[in-house]
Design goal:
The protein is α/β, with parallel strands linked by helices and 363 residues long. The protein has 11 helices and 16 strands. 38% of the residues are buried.
């Protein structure tokens, strides 16, 4: 979504009219989760996706109607509908999409600025237009009524706290007196900072790993104590390349390591591996992995225990690292590692889809 928001801001600032289509709800094997968006400009340019290509042509046609003066609309496509095959939605799921024009009153610039600064922010959009941005205790924009704004902020903060996107109902129409706020459906799109990928050990295996991690939307850091290895030109996809002892750098950055972070240790040297692994296993990182053979792994476990790691800490360590893809070399190993990170983060089994039954995507 970041590139979609950045483009929307650019069009907003240049005065280019555009429509935004956003996934509101999904059922079954939907390609994208609620919040995924696609832009259609008045001159026919397209950015983003709501279905991975299944219904984009139909969405474009409706967006053109909206830009020509039609009202905002909510459309549903599903494999059970007669029109579904005509537009290509054959994946087995159903999606509901809001298509509306986004005007200059929607605070997209605030959303983009918070994203760039790594600050969690939510964009709140009524189905009939307008919007506000919520995050960090501040609000930008308005729905036109202070009481409605307060109700919308409460609803958005609950969604943002879970990094969730989708429809919510704000208001309290059942209340009596001046505090009564009519119930209203709102689209909340939550934007959190990019997940961090921390790679310790600037070996050859780290190069494709940094590139793939960046392509998947991570904030990538490569850290190595050896200046000859920690050369920024070797890692064009990394956000930062640091020359420092891994455990020393980790201590200074541990406050930024949250449940979405992945820590990968590639140095193959216990003098560097063990100190940073001991810290990472006690941190909030959602994934901690280390490269090495099974023999290296057993030796590493003993050294970690000697360094004070508990059995609960050790149980979190993924080593040998990666999924069993049968790959060889740095590039295929990087795919294996990132595949395991995705599986851990998303709750995937790591098994071939042909071995499973039921929907491909679960909601």
């Amino acid at each position: 979504m970041r590139h979609v928001i950045d483009q929307a801001v650019a069009w907003q600032r240049s005065g280019t009219r555009f429509a935004m289509a956003t996934v509101l709800r999904t059922w079954g094997s939907a390609p994208h989760a609620p919040g995924a968006s696609m832009l259609v400009s008045e001159d026919g340019r397209i950015v983003g996706s709501v279905s991975g290509g299944c219904v984009e042509a139909a969405v474009c046609a409706i967006a053109e109607e909206v830009l020509a003066g039609a009202e905002p609309t909510v459309e549903r496509w599903g494999v059970g509908d007669e029109d579904a095959f005509a537009v290509g939605l054959t994946c087995g799921g159903t999606i509901e999409v809001l298509i509306r024009e986004v005007g200059p009153e929607v605070p997209l610039g605030r959303v983009a600025a918070d994203l760039a600064a790594g600050v969690p922010v939510a964009l709140v959009t009524p189905l009939d237009g307008g919007g506000l941005a919520v995050g960090g205790g501040t609000v930008t924009g308005s729905l036109g009524d202070p009481d409605a704004d307060r109700a919308a902020v409460l609803a958005a903060e609950g969604m943002l706290g879970r990094a969730a996107s989708g429809l919510v109902t704000s208001g309290n129409a059942a209340a009596d007196g001046p505090a009564c706020v009519p119930e209203r459906e709102l689209l909340v799109q939550s934007f959190a900072p990019r997940p961090r990928l921390l790679i310790f050990g600037a070996a050859e295996f780290a190069r494709p790993l940094a590139g793939i991690g960046a392509a998947l939307g991570h904030h990538v850091t490569v850290c190595d104590a050896r200046p000859a290895f920690a050369a920024p030109e070797r890692f064009p996809g990394a956000d930062e390349v640091v020359t420092d002892r891994p455990e020393r750098w980790f201590r200074t950055q541990e406050h930024l390591v949250g449940p979405g972070a992945a820590v990968i240790v590639l140095t193959h040297d216990h003098r560097f591996d063990v100190p940073v692994l001991a810290l990472a296993l006690r941190s909030r990182a959602g994934y901690v992995g280390a490269m090495g053979s099974r023999r290296t792994h057993q030796d590493r476990l003993e050294r970690l225990r000697a360094a004070g790691a508990t059995e609960a800490d050790i149980a979190r360590l993924r080593s040998p690292i990666g999924l069993d893809l049968g790959g060889r070399g740095p590039e295929e190993t990087a795919v294996s590692i990132m595949a395991e990170i995705i599986a851990v983060r998303r709750g995937g089994s790591g098994l071939p889809l042909t071995s499973r039954s039921g929907p491909v995507h679960t909601v």
